[in-house]
Amino acid sequence: MSRIAIVDDSRLVRTFVAGTLRSQGHEMVEVEPTSLFEVLRVLREAPVDLLVADYLMPECPGESLVRACREDSALRELPVLILSAHRDDLSLQRMQQMGISGFLMKPVEVRVLVAKVAEVLAD
Question: pTM of the entire structure?
Fold first, then answer.
């Protein structure tokens, strides 16, 4: 199956997403977002097929992470699925303009997560 990175400042969310997607046969890379630089380093060193990232993270905001990926030649085409507990239509519109592959509201239901990941990976 695919190799997927989960970046979220909540260990609980990282564990939930990683466990759910592992049960579907995916290999998971769990990344604690200590800094934008560190997350980008991990993504470059351990290439993945999909990035699942939280939108609101103090040390590595989701919007900054997506922007940095789009500006990096090695990560430019990486599909990104954003998770957020807050819906901000203006921020979502900016993220869509940057080419995110999808947006899911937290708390994420297992079936919704599995279906969206399958959809994004099929593209």
Answer: 0.96
